[in-house]
Amino acid sequence: xxxxxxxxxxxxxxxxxxxxxxxxxxxxxxxxxxxxxxxxxxxxxxxxxxxxxxxxxxxxxxxxxxxxxxxxxxxxxxx
Amino acid sequence: xxxxxxxxxxxxxxxxxxxxxxxxxxxxxxxxxxxxxxxxxxxxxxxxxxxxxxxxxxxxxxxxxxxxxxxxxxxxxxx
Amino acid sequence: xxxxxxxxxxxxxxxxxxxxxxxxxxxxxxxxxxxxxxxxxxxxxxxxxxxxxxxxxxxxxxxxxxxxxxxxxxxxxxx
Amino acid sequence: xxxxxxxxxxxxxxxxxxxxxxxxxxxxxxxxxxxxxxxxxxxxxxxxxxxxxxxxxxxxxxxxxxxxxxxxxxxxxxx
Amino acid sequence: xxxxxxxxxxxxxxxxxxxxxxxxxxxxxxxxxxxxxxxxxxxxxxxxxxxxxxxxxxxxxxxxxxxxxxxxxxxxxxx
Amino acid sequence: xxxxxxxxxxxxxxxxxxxxxxxxxxxxxxxxxxxxxxxxxxxxxxxxxxxxxxxxxxxxxxxxxxxxxxxxxxxxxxx
Amino acid sequence: xxxxxxxxxxxxxxxxxxxxxxxxxxxxxxxxxxxxxxxxxxxxxxxxxxxxxxxxxxxxxxxxxxxxxxxxxxxxxxx
Amino acid sequence: xxxxxxxxxxxxxxxxxxxxxxxxxxxxxxxxxxxxxxxxxxxxxxxxxxxxxxxxxxxxxxxxxxxxxxxxxxxxxxx
Amino acid sequence: xxxxxxxxxxxxxxxxxxxxxxxxxxxxxxxxxxxxxxxxxxxxxxxxxxxxxxxxxxxxxxxxxxxxxxxxxxxxxxx
Amino acid sequence: xxxxxxxxxxxxxxxxxxxxxxxxxxxxxxxxxxxxxxxxxxxxxxxxxxxxxxxxxxxxxxxxxxxxxxxxxxxxxxx
Amino acid sequence: xxxxxxxxxxxxxxxxxxxxxxxxxxxxxxxxxxxxxxxxxxxxxxxxxxxxxxxxxxxxxxxxxxxxxxxxxxxxxxx
Amino acid sequence: xxxxxxxxxxxxxxxxxxxxxxxxxxxxxxxxxxxxxxxxxxxxxxxxxxxxxxxxxxxxxxxxxxxxxxxxxxxxxxx
Lengths: 79, 79, 79, 79, 79, 79, 79, 79, 79, 79, 79, 79
Fold this sequence. Notes:
The structure is a homododecamer of 79-residue chains.
Chain A: H1 2-5, E1 9-18, H2 22-36, E2 40-53, E3 56-57, E4 60-69, H3 73-77
Antiparallel strand pairs in A: 1-4, 2-3, 2-4
């Protein structure tokens, strides 16, 4: 059973932003999450949108689910 | 790059309740979240439902995504 | 108003795993969440998938929303 | 096994209407259902729409699933 | 209030069939429902599928929601 | 035309429950429906969720559509 | 055929806003549309969300489809 | 860049009606749109429904997205 | 176990076309599939769309899932 | 009330194209819309697809909702 | 580039069946697919349904996407 | 009829990967498919996700439907 316990994941929902495009917006969100969470495992895109300012795209905003493995109970409180 | 870092958002999922209706259930959830989180930015409704007791609506329950800006890594752990 | 405050819920998203099947994957995720969170109230299945290794299912992985009642502000930070 | 039998629910789909708004449309549908069905347990909103007459909203119409517990076989025929 | 009561609708889910095509499958379901229910108001298509027999379409099967006005409590039990 | 009439189906929506798992929850709902309805034809799973009590799953609850063939007008009133 | 031509509808997508709640946000959008379009026929809610400012809901924003009958070709250009 | 500009499309949402069936409802909407818009490119079906009158289908109503190429800025205002 | 093996199905995704309408587009896809695949069992409609040429519908295009029973391993390679 | 009136938005649906990728296709659609509409406020991606020619991607085509604020009734007619 | 080529996957859609339950229906489909395809990588559940015979569930039928890595062009033809 | 036969399409589901971004992941999948299939016609994006390794995106993985025209029965077996 102990092993299964290591295969529980938590998914947090983030929105990453970038003026450069969809890929960079995803990277920015992952980079940010990686500063606090050490076991990031995968991402899944849920929405792409963004504000327009003076007729130009201000930011590409990408809503992501980001999953990470929970290694001990304290991890459950981190996100 | 520093600026982009200030444009990462986290979304938490809450269910607000009220016997008075949909609007108040949303307000109650936001009020509650605002006691702990200081940078609340937007909400999005995901589901409306509720229990019926003795033939009357007990609570309107509204499932919400609530987004807030992550200003420093510690914010990522708060929700 | 005080009473309503006790009817705000938070939903976290988990993925439970088990080599034994869908039911056990759900139970494993709930068990894990219950070590840290004391007011678990309901779960809702969002996705069922899993890796295949050497032609056999390695793990059933079930993505869940798990809801719990927020009893005081500190609970909002726990998940 | 007997106990499980008491935990089967049926969901009927109703559309409640009100010129006053979404909340009242939901209440009207529940009130109507409660005249015939005695074990109403929960509702879930599936659609909000309505007719416009002379430039004003005639009715808010809310499509609901309404669940109730089936206590004996005859209940299965009632809705 | 009395008037609002006349604006509660019930939706039943039917599957109509026809070897001739989608339109006729819808008509067949409506015709059938109309034998028992007198206040049919609208239909909405939810799914189109069908069995294939000997390489040919056996039936077009159309899943429909069919809404009707509830005029008195007894109507709620009819469907 | 007579034959087509025998190919109209009605779908009712049930929630079956079991503490044992998803499969048994489905079986319980079908068993219950079968006590009153004689022409059950198929089921389709629409949602899996359930309450958690004291950190353990109380019930697996599975929302189902259950389809049955309408053989004569009286069947339309039964469900 | 002429008659059928009078039964073509166009749907435009609007977002209505109100600090007061969902109902009023819908009414505001319909009122606005009614200043230019004379044959409004129905609305359908597609999304409910809104900005949060200083911990309070700034606006309830409701995305709507609003349908109106096209009576002559010029109407097709109006929305 | 000029060439890309010719590959921007606009999609309008229409509901076509016909007492004859789904196909004719689609054709009626396209015919209507074609009186005003000259560069119609494709359609996509989004919903099929309709009113029932005296137990018979009054109209098949098909909600369509209809796309057309924008050739110069004035086209953007036409729909 | 052998029997269960005969109850594995494969679904391929096809788009059938016809200038005549939705029904014929479905029939054309099934007819085509039936030239190579002998155990076709059912179809399910996933999308209806089509190109418009000179203001008229060029083709009704219906995207289908088409299921067939896999009788021996070689069938798995056929589609 | 006057202020609320300034918070009604209209959303038009566009498809932007580019041989270079998703980001540029979005930019091209926004640029095009900005030639006629002055209050563009946000975009939301609804679909990504494209034609393949000689085994290579001809165009990335991104379907977008583009929202803009309606400042006076004439704006309602522009899109 | 060569390495990327090894990271293209194909997904086939299968329906597995079992009278024993959801888990076994998934296993049966994977086992069947594994007789012909050697690089199976993951599965994702898309639908759970089944026929009812004499008031009992005949088969649990689970529609799956099954993904496998394409190692050389010939693999692309196998499924 | 012969002509219609040339307008049947098959859609296969692929996942393309690239460490460089979404666009390149799509291109890699199309390039791979084009080695075996000669009549590729269009793609449609169905999902964007990917693994994270050491806090960085390992691969952008894009799930695609890829459609191609079936020119003779043998094509139906190729994918």
